[in-house]
């Protein structure tokens, strides 16, 4: 899988950086996307230095403008804030390759309109993931994942991430493509969450976990028992 380049759109943000660090450390080739190509390249350089300092050896992390990053990734991970989701999708849509996989990590939280991070916004499409599907060419597979694992846990490379990763999508093969990415993060387990519409529930859990993080001053995760 290491020869399959992963483009992380919004990769200069906390969640994107955390995923990039974990996957690059596991041997995947990463390209960081940002509205500003120079900012993306600077973030990529910083991440390379971080991993090299931890003895990771040769890692491949590059930076580019969002559209270029999307064009070069067979797996594209959207980690932008909800307020930027529509504009970012319109920007990268023409560059998404047929047969590529888009993983939506967006959560419609109230900070998008100046509200609290522990509350959700209503989305006409039903969920951020379903809105993403409506904005994506039919030739591109769309799933949702990684909503319930926080940036703090991802960037703490000294510890495993204690969280199951619920993956939702209408195509089973598309969801299976995410499994190696989940298993590359120590402590994470892949869980098939069913149809893309179930993202409505998974996204809402994020707001619940954020509230717990604030109250307990920790990095919570979610575990599904009985599997």
Give a written overview of the molecule.
Helix content is 37%, strand content 17%. Strands 3-2-1-4-5-6-7-8 form an eight-stranded mixed sheet, with helices on both faces. It has helices at 14-25, 37-53, 66-72, 85-92, 128-135, 151-155, 172-176, 179-183, 199-216, and strands at 6-9, 30-34, 61-65, 75-78, 101-104, 141-144, 163-169, 188-192. The protein has a single domain (6-216), classed as Rossmann fold (3-Layer(aba) Sandwich), CATH 3.40.50. Helix 1 (14-25) crosses helix 2 and helix 4 (85-92) packs parallel to helix 5 (128-135). It is globular, with a radius of gyration of 16 Å. The mean pLDDT is 96. It starts with 5 loop residues before the first strand and ends in an 11-residue tail after the last helix. By secondary structure, it is an alpha/beta fold.
**CATH hierarchy, class:** Alpha Beta
The profile of the biggest β sheet is: 8 strands, mixed
Average pLDDT taken over every residue? 96
Which residue ranges are poorly predicted, with pLDDT under 50 across at least 5 consecutive positions? none
Which helices and strands, and how do they pair?
Blueprint: E1 6-9, H1 14-25, E2 30-34, H2 37-53, E3 61-65, H3 66-72, E4 75-78, H4 85-92, E5 101-104, H5 128-135, E6 141-144, H6 151-155, E7 163-169, H7 172-176, H8 179-183, E8 188-192, H9 199-216
Parallel strand pairs: 1-2, 1-4, 2-3, 4-5, 5-6, 7-8
Antiparallel strand pairs: 6-7
């Amino acid at each position: 899988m290491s020869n399959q380049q992963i483009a992380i759109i919004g990769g200069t943000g906390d969640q994107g950086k955390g995923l990039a660090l974990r996957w690059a450390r596991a041997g995947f080739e990463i390209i960081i996307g940002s509205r500003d190509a120079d900012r993306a390249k600077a973030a990529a350089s910083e991440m390379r230095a971080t991993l090299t300092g931890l003895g990771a050896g040769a890692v491949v992390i590059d930076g580019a403008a969002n559209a270029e990053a999307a064009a070069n990734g067979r797996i594209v991970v959207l980690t932008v804030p909800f307020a930027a989701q529509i504009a970012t999708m319109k920007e990268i849509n023409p560059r998404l390759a047929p047969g590529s996989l888009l993983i939506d990590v967006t959560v419609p939280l109230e900070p998008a309109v100046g509200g609290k991070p522990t509350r959700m916004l209503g989305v006409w499409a039903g969920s951020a993931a379903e809105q993403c599907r409506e904005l994506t060419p039919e030739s591109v597979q769309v799933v949702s994942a990684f909503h319930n694992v926080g940036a703090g846990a991802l960037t703490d490379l000294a510890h495993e991430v204690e969280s199951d990763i619920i993956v939702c999508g209408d195509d089973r093969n598309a969801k299976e493509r995410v499994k190696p990415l989940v298993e590359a993060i120590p402590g994470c387990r892949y869980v098939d969450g069913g149809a893309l519409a179930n993202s409505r529930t998974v996204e809402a859990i994020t707001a619940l976990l954020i509230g717990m993080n604030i109250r307990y001053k920790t990095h919570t995760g979610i575990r599904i028992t009985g599997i």
